[in-house]
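Q: Structure for this?
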Amino acid sequence: MDTLNGAVGTSPPRLDAMDKASGRARYADDIRLPGMLHAAVHTSPHAHARILGYRTEAARSIPGVHAVVTGADIADVRYGGIVKDESMLARGKVRYVGEPVAAVAAADVRTALRAAAAIEVDYEPLPAVLSPDAALAQDAPLLHEAFAQYVKSVDGAGHGNVVFESAISEGDVERAFAECGAVVEARWQTQAQQHVYLETNGCVADVDATGRITLYATCQSVHHLQQRVAEELAESMARIRVVATRVGGGFGGKHASNLHSIAAWLARAARRPVKLVLSRMQDFEIQRSRHPAQIWMKTGARTDGTIIARDVRMVLDGGAYADESPAVLAFALLMSRGPYRIPNVRAQGKVVYTNKLRAGSFRGFGNPQASFAGESQIDDLAVALRMDPCELRLRNAMQPNDTAFGGHAVPSCALREALTTVRDAQRAAPPLAARAGTRRGVGFAAMSHISGLMGTSATVQLRTDGSIALATGCVDLGQGADTAMVQICADLLGVPIERVSYAQQDSDISPYNWKTAGSRSTYMTGRAVATATTEMRGRMLDQAAKMMECAPSDLELRPGGAIGLVGVPKVVSFKEVALHSLFRSGGPIAATHGFVFDGPPFDPKRASIHRLAFSNLGIYTFGAHCVEVDVDMTTGKVDVRRAWCAHDVGRAINRVSCEGQIQGGFVQGMGYALTEAMHWNEDGWLTTTTLADYKVPGMLDVPAEIHPFVLEHPEPSHPMGAKGIGEPSLVGAAPAIANAIRDATGARVTTLPMMPERVLEAMEVTR
Amino acid sequence: MSSRKIHCTLEVNHVEQDLLVHADETLLDVLREQLALCGTKRGCNHGVCGACNVLVDGMLVRACLMLAVEVDQRPVVTVEGLADGRGYTDIQQALVAAGAIQCGFCTPGFVMALTALFAREPRPDRDTIRNALSGNLCRCSGYVKIVEAAERLAELPR
């Protein structure tokens, strides 16, 4: 697609950067409305219990309390993306410690907390299941006795405590293993990781005289949130408006959740605005985590290093409610082949209910678990074959026009380039001095991921002075989507980005977007922006043609916002075009483009697919990581010294933002690899509820050198060639580090996080 | 629990503020709720993340760990008080230019930590910068571009 001013591919500062640097940016907790009340949530002290009754009189009688709500007061509806199993407040039973049971709105935070504590709930405790093994045991207590009656948009053959079961296979795995010269097999276990967006989840609910709600929310989609609140309040979406605030990080954790409906309910009851912002402790207890996984995997290769078979079984711990579990399971299975040409693959999995916090979407969406196992196993296979691990990857790497697991064609694949880029960069780097008592290791991981899914749209309008008003439903979580969208639009019109305004997301006016998720914003919404802008450009040329009495084909865009006759200096400015259209003839010039991901479905002739929560997925992207670690041979502590991360972004819209995604994703993956874990005690209480107990990597925990390599192989289905880069960078961190530990020590760590004691334990086993 | 409030006088960003506060109210509570200075962020409320960093007597402190009454009669500077509330400091501009800001929620805390660092050490090296920022959590950036911003600033002719 032709461009005029090169706004795409440059790295202008983020549109909102100075607002953020100066403290002006408004996040959810910064919103204050006249008469605003503050909410507090009363949560379950039991992992599993029947609710016998509520006593709220004491709370209601506290001066300053304006509204109290319990599960007995709310509509009899259940919400859920695929399995409708959840209500905004517990009804009948509680299923995890921290589950919202009741809530209050009061004049100030202090009074609200006091009133929430004054609510008394009578419980009959029930036996709890705190692990998938316990959940799957014969005669295990059931979390959802009425599971069979729940509404489900996809049937997942759920039964007992099983939420969903899926399976995908290609080829003949058993026969292929018989032909293998080397076969490796192992079990892996991964933990619950929390998103720890620096801004805890929250919102302010306002209400008008008719009871219509406006929610100001930190969120990943105004439309999805609007839909959830409308369902939970048993209301028309026309009666719920959602406006996005600045979002202090999301990572998959800020999809619609129970707190928005609670705030909306209280605002209506009190007829006053209500703020509900979670404390860090409550955010840990009641929002979401990444799925803990148990993975068994077996991979086999011919003696020449050609991988021909892989068999995978996984059990995901879904927590108390289904949320995104069926989709996470599907994606984990689809990614479990890894980015390799393996003709015979069988992947089977289930996700089960346990009496813990719900697990849901989190950057990587099942891929980090599958890739930790799969990429660790590639190195074990290399050892068995006596091959270099990077060489084994290169030999089996997918290439352009190969087929992904499930049957999608992959026209563009830069995996080999990604691998050789990081390998060569590491080899060329001046060696770091050795440290006494440590051993150095180098590890690799390769990965694929997708960008795509569902629907999106964009609207572009020409304003009176020739400037451009762009709107999409894509909420920027901090990754820089706002700036990228404006760059695309400005580039196609040949104007500086300052001439394009970008609308804050508001469900009343924003064009539809599913969610900021699935690494899809630049790919999906970016496509919509590019197509809408191109359509509007055509209308502007038509208008200019009438004004200049020529054919549109004789006209061209000139830099800076003008349209000229080809070969002639004469121009009309965008302003003149706008004024003519608005006040003389033609009418307002605007364009909207929307679409739903249009890639082909899975190929049933190639892959046998049972109960997958997706029909199509997205376009595929590839990357590779290389890390150097020092392992302290006495303590087992792992120090990541340097990292090289290469990712194909199709085409970089904003190069610095791409680098930021790569570096930030790698570090979040380092936390997953080495320090972050949510722990529940034997009563089901989460014990890691502060940032002092839950260790997020800090400045001194991460290498000073994280080298991002932005590879560009334009994606044919995107007008600018772009692919997403939000998630892949997290995926490779844990296996690359695990492989470096193995390189340094010979020890294979199979459980995340790889804390010093686990590394020591693995070293013991190796001795 | 209608505890009596205590009168104290805070000097925030060079403006005197007469306030009534609860004994257990933190400086962060007062800045955000009473003074509407929302640039100081509540990330963890436990003194871990550094998003609520402010300067008290020119020293970097966590506003969530300091009681408002402790700050009586002492000068407080928040992110809103930098560059006299007009324009932007070199530190803010360096972070913007380096692409070090993503979600931005941690940024005011980093700005204040860097302000304290550059006030005592105009040409910090990489290790000094990393140590000075080791009490600030960022979940988006991986820290690399934040350090790059500070390094570039340290090298600027001044």
